[in-house]
Amino acid sequence: MNVLGENNANEPPSPGASPPAEDVVLRRLESGDIAALIGLESQCFSTVWREDQFFLALRQKVFFAFGLFLENARLVGYISVYHLAGELEILNIAVSREQRRRGFGLRLLTEALRQGRERGLERAVLEVRTSNAAAIALYERLGFSLAGKRPGYYEDTGEDALIYVAPLQ
After folding, report:
1. Mean predicted confidence (pLDDT) in 153-160
2. Residue 85 burial by CB count (10 A; 0-12/13-18/19+): exposed, middle or buried?
3. 34-44 and 51-58 helices cross at what angle (nearest 10)?
4. Helix (H, G, I), strand (E, B) or coil at 125
5. Phi and psi (nearest 5°) for 29?
6. Closest Cα to residue 57, out of 86, 90, 82?
7. 3-state class of 91 per DSSP?
8. How confident is the model at residue 17 (pLDDT cuts 50, 70, 90)?
9. Rounded to an integer, what distance in angstroms lies between the CA atom of residue 20 and that of residue 123?
10. Nearest to 45 by CA among 89, 88, 80, 84
11. Residues belonging to the active site
């Protein structure tokens, strides 16, 4: 799982950062958004989903993804999750390099958690690279706590993943 970019590239907003622009639209993603999803993932992650993976996921009832689009209809961020057995599993969060530090990661994650609560899910779970301090700070800010570690989880580097969980109810 990839969360908030890699190598600490996506940090939470700095204390004086301006809030996300009002010309940003948040909407559920569809199969017509797959090319934009792949483009954004290629910019943010070393391992990206293939077109067929996105296509199959978007057709599943237990999967949803939301994207942030600028006024010009350009995808600048997205979050994808699975929900089943009372749990919201956050798969990926990505924000384009030029749009980072504007609160978009926070907005995406907040929306996913809200959706989980509306569905009556009990908790959210995610994995994050041990080196991604900025993402970890965001998760802890939103009530996630460390629950464990997966040694060597990331195939591209062999880096460990930290498992974070947050109650939703």
Report:
1. 91
2. exposed
3. 120
4. strand
5. -85, 150
6. 82
7. strand
8. very low
9. 27
10. 80
11. 127, 139
